[in-house]
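HUMAN: Forgive my ignorance: could you write out one protein's sequence and backbone structure tokens?

ASSISTANT:
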Amino acid sequence: MRLKALLVDDEIHILKNLQAVIPWEELSIDVAGTAKNGEAALVLVRELQPELILCDIRMPVMDGIGFLEALRELGSDAEVIMMTGYQDFSYVRSVIRYEVKDYILKPIDYDELGQTIGRLAEGIRERKAEQQSIQREWHQVFHLAYEKVLYDVLMEVGGGSAKPFLKLHELSGEDLTFAMLLVDVADYSQKERNWDDKERKLWNFAVHNVLQEYLSTLQIPYSVLQVRSGEWCVLIERVPAESYDRAQCEDWSDQLREAVERYLKIQIRVALQPSAVSLEKLARVYKNLQRSLSLNAGDNTAAIVPERKKEQSEHSQRLWDRIEEMVTGLKRCDRRKTEAALRELNESFRKLPDASYERVQPILHYLCLHLLREMRSMDVIQADDEAAFWKQLDRNPGIRETLTVINRLVDRSIDNVMKKKTSDVLMLSARDYIERNLSSDLSIDALADYLGISGSYFSLLFKQRFGETFVEYVTKQRMEMAKSMLAISDKSITAVGQMVGYAERRYFTRVFSKYAGLLPSEYREQAQGRTEILP
């Protein structure tokens, strides 16, 4: 980290000596400017914002004391070394209140001065690094909280917490609009059946990171919210709403699809809203984009843009509404609402003849996929049961047989949801939060606050549920994800470490080596079967 220094003295030969004798380059300090008096120095302080100032006390126009007083009134926290003659030593007392760090007597001992500057520069760097770390942590905490608000609005949970929080964002809910893109892994139902839990976590993590990496290059405010396994909602702030550009959104969509296919060799599908979306419409538009992806299941070639002229008939709209009510009832453990929506859905479908199956097949497919994905995210279905349901659905049964399968799915979900204890639900939420935020700072206090319980109670529940402490669990998840990323990608060791929550390569290497028994580069060489160690 290079620093800027300002030299202030009315004696030209001293300014020249300071520039020539002090090993500024060795100290990684740039002499940004020189001034002959305090008044000229103040002008340079405003312009250059130096971190270190060497200043004489006796100068014409404005002396060192007047300069120091004005400097602190400006709010500058620059470190100051005063230079003074022996006869002016009594002046030192008057500068103490201005937080002068050191003083040097004239004639100047340049070796001593160089050592003093080096010591102060090291302290400045340590302070700036600490401030930057605090700023990064605050920014990360703020962004996680902001994304939590957006997620709650999207999923219609969390009550009215959005607008008070958005005051911190300096935007009201009415001012804030978004470009919304819904990203889904192509043929997800087939892939999920072939993936074990480790592979599912890996691919979800990898896709999420590729989406974030591309969007970060745009240098615009964005959020990538993983709504469920294999599905992400990308929200890009558009303020004012008139700044929405559909062609630009379609280009973003194309770039996202290309990036995921290039890095991960899998395809994603993207649906985008053709206009800016306000905060209060996020949930409704999200559901509309879900439907668009489901009804265009075979289209992987371009962004899917639902136009108004393609809106569903009144009958189809009622079916979609019943489906959403049923899923919402399951999520909220509301047996009565879920069963009422299921009865209405059954009645609507049973009025249709089998000959209409082809017309309603996309809706039935969406319903089954929707239910199975939600059941998996709620951890209310076992892998064997899910495989059995898919086996039945793969036989392309008629409407009545498909409805029988759906009824069994919902009955099974209701029973399993009702059996879950509050502690089980809390720990499932904790596990989901950890999976979605492996690259962020994770702590017991943050998770406990997210769940609305005390840190000690969280630690107790976590150990009971997972059989290991929070730190042990998070470290294991990060290390396993790092091993997978080292095996499938050519990203640098530093980048892989950052992806799983370690800002410093050295610390990541130490933790990884202790966990895996190999250096990250050695593990990559072994996993990829290469003859050379990658950087």
Notes: Strands lie at 3-8, 29-35, 52-56, 79-85, 102-106, 177-185, 222-228, 231-237, 268-272, 277-278. Residues 314-419 form one domain.
